[in-house]
Design goal:
The complex is a heterodimer. Chain A is an alpha/beta fold. Chain A has eleven helices and ten strands. Chain B is of the alpha+beta class. The chains are: A alpha/beta, B alpha+beta. The structure holds adenosine-5'-diphosphate, magnesium ion and zinc ion (ZN). Magnesium ion (MG) binds next to helix 2 of chain A.
């Protein structure tokens, strides 16, 4: 018998909402949306956590500019607070080393993280997922039981085709979909129409902002970019802030 | 390290679920070497946490299991020895045993692509029910 699953509910007891940022597609801005949403929500006065479950390519610590911090052990692991956000990532331990995990090990690592992290009371816990709908996404939905999905796409047909499958999967798993965020967007009709067709809310679009790279790791500047302004509206539409 | 308390809490929670169906007379808790759990602290934590629960009079036995790893590239099998790892690396593996992949390599071919054959972490190996 695995003792860990029994403790996950207890660990998430004080967490009001669990929001899985997902897409199915890579490079569409999931990590940016998850990290920036966390920053924006924290600045609205919410108690926010951010869990990076992209074990093969963790990014949230870089976007938030977490350095010189680590989780603290206290009958579990208390995540460090970075720019007002409680951040948990395996990168605190693996520190840039590759982590060649196979299927079952991904499940094990996720379960261990969920079982050991002490989040305390949170209004919202954002989870940044890897591309695809593998163990990370399926097990997060299974173990947290009540995650809501915030789906990110670009206007590209390649992205929309993948996201369309993800939305179907989420529906079959009975995961509530908060809505669709269009990144690298320009408010084209394509994404809006797809959202309508799939029966999910279109939450808004985020512009391509070429100077974003320069403010990665600088939360104060990140929240003042045009991307952040648009994302704030999308989060409002989703009633997350 | 006080992560043992978190593990003990999980074990007690799970066994309490079992005890809701039928009284637990004893349980065997296997502790894999890889996670580097402090058996003394775990035993203490289990005994503290089971007080005033349905497990108060259950016997909780701890069994150590050596860790064995197998390379997926060259199929070499070896016993995990924490020697050679830094304090920090051991601590990381203690929290999440899969972090072994970040710090351990196959002694024969150097591959980080290996499998933890046994002795990974903590699980409940056997439960005996009855008064
Ligand atoms: N709206 C945007 N404008 C400019 N660059 C962006 C925008 N959204 C994301 N990026 C950049 O694109 C890259 C991919 O984003 P990322 O969030 O890592 O995607 P994913 O997590 O989906 O793989 C990153 O370098 C990120 O900084
Ligand atoms: Mg990412
Ligand atoms: Zn080998």
């Amino acid at each position: 018998m695995d003792p860990r699953a029994a403790i996950v509910d207890e660990r998430l007891k004080g967490v009001a909402r669990v929001v899985l940022v997902c897409s199915g597609k890579g490079g569409v801005g999931k990590s940016l949306v998850a990290s920036l949403s966390s920053l924006l929500a924290a600045r609205e006065g919410l108690r926010v956590g951010l869990l990076d479950i992209d074990f093969h390519g963790p990014s949230c610590h870089t976007i938030l500019g977490a350095s010189g911090v680590k989780p603290v052990e206290e009958r579990g692991l208390t995540p460090p607070v970075v720019a007002g956000v409680k951040l948990m990532s395996l990168n605190f331990f693996a520190e840039g080393q590759p982590l060649p995990l196979r299927g079952e090990e991904v499940t094990d690592a996720l379960l261990e993280l969920l079982a050991v992290t002490i989040w305390g009371n949170l209004d919202v816990l954002f989870i940044d997922s890897p591309p695809g709908t593998g163990e990370e996404v399926l097990d997060t939905l299974r173990l947290t039981k009540r995650a809501e999905a915030l789906v990110v796409t670009t206007p590209s047909r390649l992205s929309l085709a993948t996201v369309s499958r993800l939305v179907k999967l989420l529906r079959e798993l009975r995961t509530p979909v908060l809505g669709l965020v269009e990144n690298f967007g320009y408010g084209s009709d394509a994404v809006r129409r797809s959202a309508e067709e799939w029966g999910v809310r279109y939450l808004g679009w985020l512009p391509y902002y070429p100077e974003l790279e320069e403010v990665i790791g600088q939360p104060d500047k990140l929240v003042r970019t045009p991307v952040a302004l648009h994302l704030r509206e999308a989060l409002r539409a989703a009633q997350l802030i | 390290m006080v992560h043992e308390w978190a593990l003990a809490e999980a074990i007690v929670k799970r066994l309490e679920e079992v005890a809701r169906e039928a009284p637990v007379s004893s349980a065997v808790i296997a502790v894999g070497e890889l996670q580097g759990v402090d058996i003394e602290i775990l035993t203490f934590a289990l005994n503290e946490l089971k007080k005033s629960t349905k497990l108060e009079s259950s016997l909780l036995l701890i069994e150590k299991e050596p860790a064995e790893l197998e390379c997926s590239t060259c199929e070499y099998r070896w016993e995990f020895g924490s020697s050679g790892l830094s304090e920090e690396e051991r601590e990381a593996i203690h929290y999440v045993p899969e972090l072994a992949h970040a710090f351990i390599r196959c002694p024969r071919c150097g591959s980080p692509d290996f499998r933890i054959v046994r002795g990974r972490g903590v699980w409940i190996k056997d439960v005996k029910l009855g008064g």
